[in-house]
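[09:14] KT: can someone run the structure on this one? pasting the chain below
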Amino acid sequence: MRFWKIAVIWSVALSYPLVLAACERTPPPPVTMVMPLPDQQPEANVLFKDNFRLGVDNWIIENEGPGSVGNLNGVLDIDMAAGCTVWFRHKLKGPLAIEYEATAVQAGGSNDRVSDLNCFWMARDPKNPNDLFARKRSGKFEDYDTLQTYYVGLGGNGNTTTRFRRYIGKQDERPLLPDHDLTDPKFMLAPNVPQQIRLVAAGKRIEFYRDGQRLFQMDDPEPYTEGWFGFRTTKSHLKIRGFRVFRIEQPEG
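[09:31] RB: done, structure tokens below
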């Protein structure tokens, strides 16, 4: 009898890893599932979350040169030799906040130059307001001039500038206010250091945070209240973790 009990226990122990493996292969719920957030946001506020473990089907890639975009062990890895935008394919509607962790990689790779941890949010094409992807883009920076969007270039121009712009949908016009053009080294990128990014679009209130510090704020009299989000870079190597979008309270006025 004792031998039989030992045999049963051993059989269950051997089968347990197989059960786990089978569970891991089970198709997961869509990315729109409600998930609790580390900062205790109410579950009902969560709009989207991607942990980058199930492929890149939630993303549309526009790139002008060689490189790769893929996911591995919870990381979206963007390694590009030229301009590239990686769009979240779902349209977003405010008021909302977008958060993610991002790292500029310096590890000896051909594109590891520590520059351009950039992003678009609430982006729309005035000619195709319901479908950002109706027009094909090459990944070149100039291709995005005709969008209406908010944009931050964090550590742009070889990690010498950090800038915020409100695109107005006109080719070769990317308005830049003096207060939105930062050149102090403290606002640039540090190699291999994870940074927490938070974007806000809540009515007229538009904000960009890095590691809890608000770098840019705009009280926009004609705000962009819906549109698409995209990671943007050029000749760099970025690692992204913990992408999430959640509803926030819109301020009065």
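[09:33] KT: thanks! Confidence is low (pLDDT under 50) at residues 1-40.
[09:34] RB: yep, looked fine to me
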